[in-house]
Structure formats: C-alpha cells, structure tokens
C-alpha cells in the first residue's frame, strides 16, 4: 500500500508541477523573488520535518500530500525566476523605435522569402547599449511595391548560422494585436526568448564567419540544418509541395503557403506535416530494428557481439541517439522533445531494470520538458502531444489482451481495426483541447488520418529523410532527384482526396469560445470515458463535451448592444451585436496578397464569438486601411446587406483582378446601397442611422482626401445608450453635423484614428462621450492619435482608449448601465509590452 501510495503521489507531483508552471504563465504581474524563495524554503523545511516523524503511518500520509505541494512550489519558483531573468533583458524605453548600430551573430535557420529574410540573432555589441541579447531580425528588399504586387525575388547575400554581421537597425519591443481569444504574438516571441525586433536599414556588412568549432552546439545544429536545406532547395524549387518535404525532413515549415495550412488544419493533418512524435518514434524504431539485426550477426573473431551486449540493449541506445539527432535537425520542438525524453526514460528504465508504468513515463517526460523550458506549456504542441500520448496509453490499457492473437491476414485485419478505433478515440478525446486552441474541430479527420497516417509516416517521411541525406553528397544527385520526385508524388496523391474532403460543407465546424467550467466538464467527460476503471454508464460521459463544443453566441436581450473595436493596427474594424443581428463596420487593412485583417483578425473573432453570418456590412470608404479585408470577409461569410460610400461591386471585381483570382468568384452581398444621411433601420430594439455623407457628396472620389470626406458615419442608438462610428471624416464634416443638431453619444469611434484633422472642440463637446476609442498602430508612422486630440477628449471627461496600448475594446449597453473592457486588461500577462504602458500619455 505504501509503495502504491508513493507512486500515486509521484503522479500527482508531476501534475502539480505542470499546474504550477501553467499558473506562472497566467500571471499578470510577477511576485517578488524573495517572497517566492521564503515560501519554497518553508515547504522544504516542512518536508524534512515530515520525514523525521516517528509514526510511520502518519509520515507516509503527510509525504503523500506534501510531495505534490513541494513540486508545485519548486515549479512556481523556477518559473518565476526564469521569467524575471528574461524580463530583465528589456529594451530601454528611450531607445524604442530608434536607430541602433548592432553587431550580431545569426543563431537560427533564416526564414527565406522572395523579398525578405528573417532570422533570430544574438547581439554581440550595440550602440546605444541595452539592446536585448536575443532579437528577431527582418531584412526586407528595397522598394515595396504595394499589397497586391507579387513578391519579386531579391538577390540577398547567403545568410547562415554562425555569420557575424554589422548593421544599422530600427529596434522595437515585440508588440502584437490583442483581441478576444486571438493569437498572442508577444507570447509567441517571449516563449522563444526574443526580446526585440530589429528592422535593417541600409546595407549590412559581413564581419566574419565563425569557425564551426567556435560555434555553440545550438548554432552548430542550425548550421547543419542550413547545409541540408541549401542542398535540398534546387531539387524542390519547382515542386508545389516542396515545403512539406523540408518540413518533414528538417522541420522548416516557412515554405508551406498559408492556404495549405488551412487545408491541413481543416482536415486534421497538421500534426503529420510537422515533426511529430510518431515520426521520430518510427524512424528511431526502423534504425533500431536494423541495428539489432546487424548486431546479432556481427562477430569479433569467434565471439558473437550479442553474447557480450544483448542486441535489444544496443538497439535501444541507438534508437535514443537517432531520435536525438532527428529532433535536433528538426528544430527541437515540443513534440520532438517529448518523444526523445520518453524514449530516453524507457531505455534507462530498461538498462537499470526499473519497472515503470506508461503514466509514470509520461509524467516524468512532462516535468523534464518544463524543467528545460517553462514556456513550453504555452505551445499548443505541448498539450496536444502529451494529450494524444495519454489517450494512446489509455486505449492500450483498456484494450489489454482481450483481442485474441491471430496470424496472417487476420492479424493484419485485427491490427487495422484496432488502429482505426484508437484513431477515432484520439480524435474525439482531443476535441476539447483542439476547440479551445483553434476554435474549430475537423469532422473529416478520422477519415483523412486513416489514409494519411500510413502514407506519410511509412512512406513520405522516410523518403524525405533519405532525400535530405543523399542531397548532402553531390555524387548522389541523380538518386536525390528520384527520391524527391517520388516523395513529392506521394504528397500530391495524398492531397487529391484531402482537398476534396476539405471542400465539403461538413468538413469542420467552428466552435465559439465557451466558459472555463464547460471546458473542465469536457475534460472530466473525456478522462472518465477513457478510464480503465468500470464506471456506471461510462459511455454517456462523452456527452459532457457537448456544452463546450456547442456553446454558441453571447445572449443579448432586446435593446442591448455590444460594440467591439478590434485591435487591427493602423486600420478600422468594428463589430456590433444586438440580440439577433451582427453588423461589421469596416474590414481593416490589406498587408499583402496573402495577408489581410479580414482573414487574420475579423474571421477568428467572429468564429470565437459564435457568429456565422453578417447581417449588415458597412465599408465607410475605399481607403485600404478600411476596405482591405473585404474580399476575405465576403469569401467566408454571407452578407445580407451592405452599405458603402463607393461602388462596392466594382471594388470587389478589381480585387479579384489584382489578386489573380478567377472572375466573379468572390460572392457579393445579397443587397447593396449607398450610405447616405437619413438612411435608418431598426433591429432588436436598436436604431441604426447614417449621419453622413449628404446626398450632394461626390460618389466617385479620386483622392484620399475626397474618400475621407465621403466616409460613412453611423449612429447606433438603443434604449439606454448610443454609439457613433466616424470613419475618416474631418473637422469640416464634424462641424456640419453639429450644426445639423448632432446629439450626445455615450461611445465614439474617434474619427480618422485620432488625427489632428478630426475631433474638433465643438464636436467633442457636442458628443460628450463617456468612452472614446482610437484604432491605431503601434508606433504608427502617421503619429496617430495626435496628443492634442487625445487630451481634448480626456478634458471633456471621456475615457480615451487606443488599440496600440489597450488592444481590442468592448463596450456593452445594458439597462443596468454602460460597461467596457480592454483586452490588455482582461488578458494581461507579465510578458506584455512594458514599454507600451510607459509611453501612455498621462490622463
């Protein structure tokens, strides 16, 4: 009983370590290291006091409870210390967005694009001093041709790990848009230890190339990855899915287009395109089997080598070495780390004759991963990787030996049925974490994985690795070309049914963000259903995941409205919800042919909010920072009614031509009208009214100033509060509306992003808003919002919010009052941009 109790305590200790590490990464502010050290010391003293208890039974009970607590304290202390250390490497606020002269070493595999290069570098010297040691460097080709231009291939010098460069750069603290349940770019970079972003100016100078022997082990591994990629690229340049081959062989996913990632996500095949634990295990097992076969037949003189060291032992050690090499070449991601550590633990347990259960191996691996990298817990790979393995272990337990072993084709058929059932259980069991992480679950993943797993794991991945190995030797170029052709052909074969399945309307379903209790309930259902213990009505526990998966949209009462000003950088996108209706005001900016706010921000927000259609879309005017995402929005959502100050149909057809799409492929709104002062409609007890433009305004503007003048201005008025959305109109138009009797509004979207050509004093006084919101970009080159405008609203008594400092801003109108919330306050984490808070204008 004691042994079982301590073993159970060990598993709880591992869970406590994981939970405490996760808790650290949820902190808005870090506690004092002294306080943490004192609490940890008390815990250690309590442990030593417990082991000195004379009563053996009491000592055992106390230790079973105390050990998990001590692990949690240790994890919390380690996490806080690591975070404090990393935060200390902060760009001085006075050097934000200024030119610095840096000498840096490239330490990771550069990301290659036709018109840019991006890489992680270690700063060796900086002037002024204080630039963080680990930075992300962007080197863009000169002469940006605009968001619609096809990137032209620029001749960059060869960049590889180990090079030392000197360059003038603009340095900024990492800063990303922050929206409800959206991607946290600052978290992503912080977890990698990147504490500044440097944009190169002018022409950098190569100082030296470090000899391989003087490079760190990490840089040496990255140099090997670079050498392999350089040899592979000539064979892959003309191949449609060449990026998948580089991803499977060396973990470089940068060449896979965004459209392909959307297909992999929708079909549930993303884990196969990445370096997954299954790939590492498969390759290690194949090499180990070959090594065991050779070792059994290897003789030294008259003595068989297997007589000295068992072939199984040799094969186990070789498997760990091969797994480690593959993981290093693949970039040492969390799934790879987990697989390597689990293999190492199994081999050590075998060598030391330790009897470890599957759950113990998983627990030790989880703690080991987090000891090496506390921020691994922030990655989706950590949860999905360990979750999938845990489900596999559970399936193995309840499957047991119940299946009678048969031979020949019957055995293969039994194995196929077992694998299919296990894949189905893994898919369903991972629905809750997948829905939480991606707000989408694939319904076709069991089918797509059924043919993709054997094809990619047994054929494509080994061939990709063989191609990478042969490409290093010029004499084997004909072999490399043939292997690359075969591997790519299999991927093309795989994509035919996958693309067809993804086109089905039922391929995947969006999942709205649900309360935390529903996720906990879903986990209880999954764990209970997969538990090896016999529980009453065990199969019904799967039903506990349904509330989380089908939570739906927020419930608003008649007359209530909710306005969400999304954080879209220098642009505009506002979502207004009523009880049964959704209105989208502007669609943000287009940044490139593949990237716009419609697909990157608006679509994820609407999906997490449980909103699947748009009743009314208003595009205030045709400037690119307001209309840039309209094509993506129309492609993803049915829009019933649209209003604009320009010919929206002509604009959409022009977008098709500029983006190289087939004519008439972007769906148009069911109905379109010009926005015009006096146009009014009501829905769910809320009135919508256009206050501008007047009918006499030119409907075919040719300049940006004319387009701003024509901007749609929309008033939203419920029974209790009103909001005003100003577009980009200027002071002249504001004063005209004041003369026409503009009434007070509780919330205002500040005109023209807070430019000094808007927010006239008379207009600010007439509106008398409680809340004023400016949608602006971090360190906008336009200088928005103007400081005088910000102070003008503040002197009027308005709470002035700006998206670069506050993230998305949500405002609710209810009978009980007007409430608001900023995303950077609601989801504040200790790593979020400190300099953004320092630069805020005092209120």
CATH superfamily of the domain at 561-838: Ribonuclease Z/Hydroxyacylglutathione hydrolase-like
How many helices? The count is 31
Mean of all residue-level pLDDT scores = 88
Beta strand count: 25
Largest sheet: 8 strands, mixed
Task: Give the structural class.
Answer: alpha/beta
CATH topology of the domain at 561-838: Metallo-beta-lactamase, Chain A
Please give the alpha-carbon distance between the first and last residues: 64 Å
Helix content: 40-55%
Proportion of residues in extended strands:
15-25%
Per CATH, the class of the domain at 561-838 reads Alpha Beta
- What is the strand arrangement across the widest sheet? 16-15-14-13-12-11-24-25
Mass-distribution shape: globular
Give your account of this protein's structure:
This protein is of the alpha/beta class and 843 residues long. The strands form 5 sheets. The protein has an 8-stranded mixed β-sheet with strand order 16-15-14-13-12-11-24-25. A 7-stranded mixed β-sheet has the order 17-18-19-20-21-22-23. The longest helix is centred in the first third of the chain and has 33 residues, at 56-88. Among the domains are: 2-88; 93-215, Beta Barrel (OB fold (Dihydrolipoamide Acetyltransferase, E2P)); 561-838, Metallo-beta-lactamase, Chain A. The protein contains 31 helices and 25 strands. Helix content is 48%, strand content 16%. A hairpin with an 8-residue loop joins β11 and β12. α1 packs parallel to α3 (56-88) and α11 (311-329) packs antiparallel against α12 (334-351).
């Amino acid at each position: 009983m004691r042994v079982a109790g301590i073993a159970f305590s060990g598993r709880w200790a591992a869970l406590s370590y994981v939970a405490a590490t996760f808790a650290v990464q949820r902190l808005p502010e870090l506690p004092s290291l002294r306080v943490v050290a004192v609490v940890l010391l008390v815990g250690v003293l309590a442990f030593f006091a417990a082991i000195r208890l004379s009563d053996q039974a009491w000592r055992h009970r106390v230790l079973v409870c105390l050990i998990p607590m001590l692990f949690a304290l240790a994890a919390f202390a380690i996490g806080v210390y690591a975070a404090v250390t990393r935060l200390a490497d902060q760009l001085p606020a006075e050097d934000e967005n200024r030119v610095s002269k840096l000498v840096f070493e490239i330490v990771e595999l550069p990301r290659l694009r036709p018109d840019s290069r991006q890489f992680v570098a270690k700063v060796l010297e900086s002037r002024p001093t204080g630039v963080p040691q680990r930075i992300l460097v962007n080197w863009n080709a000169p002469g940006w041709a605009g968001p619609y231009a096809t990137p032209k291939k620029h001749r960059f010098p060869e960049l590889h790990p180990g090079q030392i460069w000197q360059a003038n750069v603009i340095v900024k603290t990492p800063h990303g848009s922050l929206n409800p349940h959206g991607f946290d770019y600052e978290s992503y970079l912080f977890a990698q230890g990147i504490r500044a972003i440097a944009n190169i100016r002018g022409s950098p100078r190569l100082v030296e190339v470090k000899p391989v022997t003087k490079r760190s082990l990490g840089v040496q591994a990255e140099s090997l990855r670079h050498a392999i990629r350089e040899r592979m690229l000539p064979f892959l340049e003309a191949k449609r899915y060449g990026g998948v081959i580089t991803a499977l062989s060396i973990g470089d996913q940068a060449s896979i287009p965004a459209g392909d990632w959307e297909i992999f996500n929708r079909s549930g095949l993303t884990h196969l395109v990445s370096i997954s634990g299954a790939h590492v295990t498969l390759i290690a097992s194949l090499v180990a089997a070959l090594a065991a076969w050779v070792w059994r037949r290897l003789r030294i003189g008259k003595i068989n080598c297997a007589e000295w060291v068992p072939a199984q032992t040799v094969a186990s050690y070789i498997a760990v070495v091969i797994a480690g090499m593959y993981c290093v070449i693949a970039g040492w991601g969390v799934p790879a780390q987990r697989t390597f550590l689990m293999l190492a633990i199994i081999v050590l347990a075998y060598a030391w004759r330790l009897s470890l259960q599957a759950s113990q191996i998983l627990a030790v691996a989880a703690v080991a991963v987090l000891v090496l990298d506390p921020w691994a817990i922030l990655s989706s790979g950590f949860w999905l990787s360990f979750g999938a393995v845990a489900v596999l272990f559970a399936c193995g337990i309840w499957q047991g030996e119940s299946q009678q072993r048969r031979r020949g084709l019957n055995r293969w058929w039994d194995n196929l049925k077992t694998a299919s059932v296990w894949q189905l259980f893994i898919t369903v069991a991972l629905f809750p974490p997948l829905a939480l992480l991606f707000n989408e679950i694939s319904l076709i993943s069991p089918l797509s994985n059924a043919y993709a797993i054997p094809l990619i794991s047994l054929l494509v991945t080994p061939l990709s690795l063989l191609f990478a190995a042969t490409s290093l030797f010029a004499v084997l170029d004909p072999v490399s070309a043939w292997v690359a052709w075969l591997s790519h052909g299999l991927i093309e074969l795989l994509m035919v049914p996958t693309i067809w399945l993804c086109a089905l309307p039922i391929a995947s379903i969006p999942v709205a963000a649900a309360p935390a209790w529903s996720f906990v309930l879903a986990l209880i259902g999954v764990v209970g259903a997969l538990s090896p213990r016999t529980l009453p009505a065990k199969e019904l526990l799967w039903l506990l995941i349904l509330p989380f998966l089908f939570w739906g949209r927020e419930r608003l009462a008649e007359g209530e409205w909710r306005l969400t000003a999304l954080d879209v950088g220098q642009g505009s996108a506002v979502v207004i919800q009523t009880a049964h209706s959704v209105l989208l005001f502007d669609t943000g900016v287009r940044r490139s042919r593949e990237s716009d706010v419609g697909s990157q921000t608006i679509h994820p927000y609407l999906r997490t909010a449980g909103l699947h259609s748009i009743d009314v879309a208003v595009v205030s005017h045709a400037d690119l920072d307001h209309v840039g995402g309209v094509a993506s929005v129309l492609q993803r959502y049915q829009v019933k009614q649209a209003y604009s100050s320009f010919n929206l149909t002509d604009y959409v057809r022009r977008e098709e031509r500029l983006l190289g799409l087939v004519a008439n492929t972007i769906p148009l709104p069911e109905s379109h009208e010009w926005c015009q002062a006096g146009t009014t409609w009501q829905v769910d007890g809320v009135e919508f009214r256009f206050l501008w433009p007047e009918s006499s305004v030119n409907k075919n503007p040719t300049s940006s100033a004319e387009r701003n003048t024509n901007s749609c201005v929309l008033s939203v008025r419920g029974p209790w509060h009103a909001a005003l959305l100003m577009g980009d109109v200027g002071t002249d138009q504001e004063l005209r509306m004041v003369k026409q009797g503009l009434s007070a509004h509780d919330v205002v979207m500040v005109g023209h992003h807070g430019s000094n050509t808007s927010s006239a004093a008379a207009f600010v006084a007439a509106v008398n808003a409680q809340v004023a919101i400016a949608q602006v970009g971090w360190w906008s080159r336009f200088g928005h919002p103007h400081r005088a405008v910000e102070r003008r609203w503040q002197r009027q008594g308005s709470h002035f919010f700006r998206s670069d400092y506050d993230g998305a801003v949500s405002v609710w109108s209810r009978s009980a009052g007007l409430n608001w919330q900023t995303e950077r306050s609601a989801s504040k984490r200790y790593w979020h941009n400190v300099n953004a808070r320092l630069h805020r204008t005092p209120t």
